[in-house]
Structures are given as structure tokens and as C-alpha cells.
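Pasting as-is:
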Amino acid sequence: MSKIYEKIIRPALFKVNPETAHEFGIETLKRGLENKSAQAYFAKKFATKEFENLERFDLTFKNPLGIAAGFDKNGIVVNQLAALGFGFVEVGTVTFNPQKGNEKPRMFRLPEDKALINRLGFNNEGTEKVVERLKKLNRNCIVGVNIGKNKDVPNEKAIENYLKSFDLAYEAADYIAVNVSSPNTPNLRELQKAENLEELLSELQKRNKALSADFSRQSADEKPPEGVTQNLKPLVVKIAPDLNESEIEAIVDIAQRLKLSGIIATNTTIKRENLKTKIDETGGLSGKPLQKMSNEVIAKIYKYSKGNLPIIGVGGIFTADDAFEKIAAGASLVQAYTGFIYQGFTFARDINSGLHEILKEKGFKNLNEAVGSKIKL
């Protein structure tokens, strides 16, 4: 099937506008794997050995590979992606109010570089609609909801905007990711600055604690005993690859003090270094050119957190070796998007099967032993 995709399907899709091709792919997945029997067939066909003891922020994952936010923005093909072998799906980025995103064209392929540029601008149906869809879904994998800020909301009102999405996403999401790093919403990356980020994440964790207490009381129909700690909704923050070392260190410090569940490293880059393709388009660059940058950020987070802060590594994964490099740099889980676009339907199976072989060849008993294995603390 991988040869069919490489020789026939991908060349046909790559003749079409990238965003149109993406929409066609989502619709094909939705309709082709809509019923449970089709999902079960593909899940069996693409099955690999499950990874033992893969618990991250109190959630159990079948395997470490997820689909990154941006692929299934509106939560339309969650179970379909699980059937293809992904261990988790991060939907979004969603914003409290629906928005159309930036003007088209806003997505570009760089085949020579195995990369994409996008400036979509958080086009989505709105948090409420996406969450309602997720609530109705008998999901087959871990589901994260990635929340962002509406374009027309100034940064000084960003906290309120994020909180509204957080409130809606809380009940439906297995974990919530806070996107402060997209380069396609004006001034959004300003929220990564230490003072801004701490204020935002602090307010989100306060709301997290309040909702957790309310949810626990409703579940138990009584107030929990004094001194009992509530299980908070896992909360992670997604950061850019373009940060300097001191900024990364500051973010790690904030994440640990506020007891965040982890960091996603990284979003797309605004840099255009060493590209084979001549292209003059703004937006976030993803794919192979991002690989080294994201690995360096992962290693720095692992170093500054002394290995105590779970990291979801994303950026430039095309092969199992690519995924292992991120794990060895300190990632507890990994995500992909561009690699899936280029590699096709067998992508998740190939990555997970390959990871099993790599761990065996290198003498690791399980994936946990491999996390951060190349980093000296």
C-alpha cells in the first residue's frame, strides 16, 4: 500500500492545491473508514505490538505516535486516524469563536525539502461545535484538544478567550494543549514571553483546579475529603522552535512551578535556512527542515527539567529513526503531520513497527528506558 501511495496517490494529490488535497484526504478518511467494521479491518491490518507501560500524565497510550494539531482541526476523523495506527490524536487548533482563517492561498508544498508552509490562521468551526462532536464519539484512542486565541482578540484579552475554550474542552478532552506559538495569528507568539505565559498558564491551571473539584463532587455526589488532591486535566503548552536558550529555560521553569503536565516541542518555524526550494511565502515551515531545530529544543527542555517534564516531540518525523532521535533527545511521546502527508496511509504502522525494532536492537527493555538516553544531565 505504501508503494501505491508513493507511485499513484501522492503524485495525483500533489497536482492539486495543497488545501484542497487536504480537504479531500479528510473526506476520504471520513467516508472510507466511517463504519466500525471498516475501522476494525484497518486497525487489524495496521496493528503493531502495543508499547508496554506507556503512561504519560496519568493517561495510557497504545503507542507513542500521535497526529499533531492542524491535521484534524475539527475532530472529524479521530477514530479513522486511530484505525491507521496513531496512538493519539490532537484536534484543533480550535478557537472559542469559529473563524475562517487567513486569505487563500495559504498552504504550500516544498517537495524537494519534504516540507510544507502554512499560514492557515486557526481556521476552525469553533470550540463548542468541535467539543460537541467529540462528546458523541466513542473514541478509540487518546484525544487532545489544542486551544488557541481568536485573531480579533487582542493579547490583553487573550486569557479570557483561552478560558472560554478551556471550559468547553475540559469535559471532552483527555488532555488540553495551549497553543501560544503559531506564527499565523498576529502577536500570538508574544504570549510565549515569560511574564505573559506565566499569567496565562496560571489562570488556566486555576480554572483547571476549580473544574476538577466541581467534576469530582458531581461524580461522587459529595465534597472530597479534606486534603485529597484533585486529578487535574493534563495541561500542556506548545512552543515555537525559534526561541533562544534563556526563553526555553524560563518556560521550563514556569511549566514546573505551575505543575503543567508537559511541553509540546515544537510548532512550525518562521526561519527559511538551507532550503532547496526557492519560495517567498510567509507562514510556518514544517517537515524535514524543522527536524534538527525541534530536536535541539527537546534536548534543552529535557536538560533544564532534569528529565522530569514530559515532552511531546514534533517536527520532521518521516521514519522510525527520526522518531527515535526525538525520544533519545528526551521526548516521551512524538507527533507527526507533514511526514504523514508525504509518506501515506502506512505511516503510523511503519513508525511504530520500526520503533519496536530500534528499541530491541539497542537493548532497551521498553520505550521509557530510551527517553533522554542521548542526553547527559
